[in-house]
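Protocol step 4 of 6: structure prediction from sequence.
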Amino acid sequence: MATGLSDDFLQHARMLSELNEGKPCRADGRRAVSAAYYSLFHLLIESSVEHLAKNWCEPIQIGIHRAYGHKDMKTVCEIFKLQTLSQKYRFLLADGISTTVPDALKKVACAFIDLQDLRHAADYQISPDIAAEDICRGVLRASEAFEQWKSVSTTEHAKLLLTMLLLKDKIELISKNQST
């Protein structure tokens, strides 16, 4: 189910950030930051649904698409921004696959975390205003994350991230049970 929503959000973020010769009004700048975050949010969800439910009917895919949460996704990205995956997730990787997280995947995870924080500032902090350079940085960060994702999306580590975005709590429970 490729909705293209992630691409639409990224295009919208770029358009908003370029208004008034790269100096958008306050509302447009804040919306650009929000759209940049949502572009990456939806890119990861679209990829995860494609990975987990590629051949399932569209109503089920749509239902799964709605099951992802911002907080859980940030928590998973916190796990993947590190150099090495924790040993408690080792059982999820095939034999011979390193626990070292690919650099491109770390960059995607870090971008998600940073963009979520920037989006919270843009959407919920009335003052101070979001600086023009932060708006540009947010949109650029999302664009770079899209490129990084293309280079790493088919790796085992990326597949694990996509699975954990939806099933982190279940995986944590399994991991706990395996260690006891």
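Step 5 (inspection) to follow. The longest helix spans residues 26-53.
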